[in-house]
Amino acid sequence: MLKEKSVIRAVKKTVLSFAFVGLCAVFFSCSKNNKSVLPFEIVGSGEVSGSGEMSGSQNNKSVLSFEAMDTFVSVQSYGKNSAAVNQKVRERIVQIESELSVTKETSDVYRINHAKSFPVTVSDDTKNVLLFSLNIAEKTSGALNPALYPVTSAWGFTKDEFRVPPENEIKTLLPLCDFKKVSVSENSVSIEKNMALDLGAVGKGFAGDEAVKLYADEGIKSALLDLGGNIQALGKKPDGSLWNVGIKSPFTGEVCASVKICDRAVITSGGSERYFFTADSKRYIHIFDSSTGRPAESGLSSATVITERGLYGDSLSTALFVLGKEKSCDLWKKYHDFEMILITEKNEIYYTEGLSECISFYDNFSKNEMIVKESAKQ
Q1: Can you give the residue range of the structural domain that contains 15?
Q2: Is residue 197 in a domain?
Q3: Domain of 44: which CATH number?
Q4: Per-residue CA distances from 52 to 7, 49, 64, 352 (Å)
Q5: Separation of alpha carbons 183 and 115, rounded Å
Q6: pLDDT digits over 259-286, tens only?
């Protein structure tokens, strides 16, 4: 076995959240060549930077930062009771983590994966997230696969014990990753022997949806969430303007594009945030192709999805990254219920036509092209 050396960063998604500055302090983000200076009010970076909780409140704006779901979470909301609602949001996110975690021994997913007999009774949250994941798995031919855990754990990403499994081991594990063998009946889940589930690719998206729902139910009309780089907005900014969300370059780490949003989630998957190197300098990322049992090699460096639902965006961003540009475009043209931004390994950027009025660019891409839906044949 090759000896591995790991280069790990703790966050899966590579989205930075920013809001254009009104009458508040300006944060200038300069490119390395100093040719562009972008005025943004920084909201959150999706980076893990410390532990514990931080909170603050000013002019009915409340901010709360904490760790959950193996990442750093920051929420900000506006309203008379915003601080109290932020705490309720934190509690809801922690609850979801306790149900979906693959490592917490009391979670639904852990109990499924270690069950001696089936079915296993699970919460409504787990049931709904699993059913949604299985639906997306079907639509994407397994590009998103909630049953891929036997393979990903063999590579060591769950416990940060990295290795490259031999090909015969991968071939043995792949039949255990057939998502069609997962059975869900009401709140009862069954899998076959030695199979295992992992809902980590969609958990933060679901948590974002639940947080936005809670804010709305509590009368909050403006909020912005950063769940480890998953950005989700409720309403507009308090001044009535749109949120402006910056997309990080997978090559430089600087903001290379941004989209203006309202009531949307912006979620990116890519291989630049979590990976390991082997002794011969081969890099292996944490996003896997279920057809090969190996890290995805689709020609993409990042895939960003803009949707109304965070759960949908979280599942699709992973699937699109695995599918690659051509198949992602085919999927978008078929369903047309999401927008996307694809950045290739050649630093080409492709974006769907629904973003034409709300996207801005801050990088010299080798190619910049809008994807349009084909007109109906006459």
Answers
A1: 4-99+202-371
A2: no
A3: 3.10.520.10
A4: 24, 10, 11, 39
A5: 14
A6: 999 999 999 999 877 888 888 888 899 9
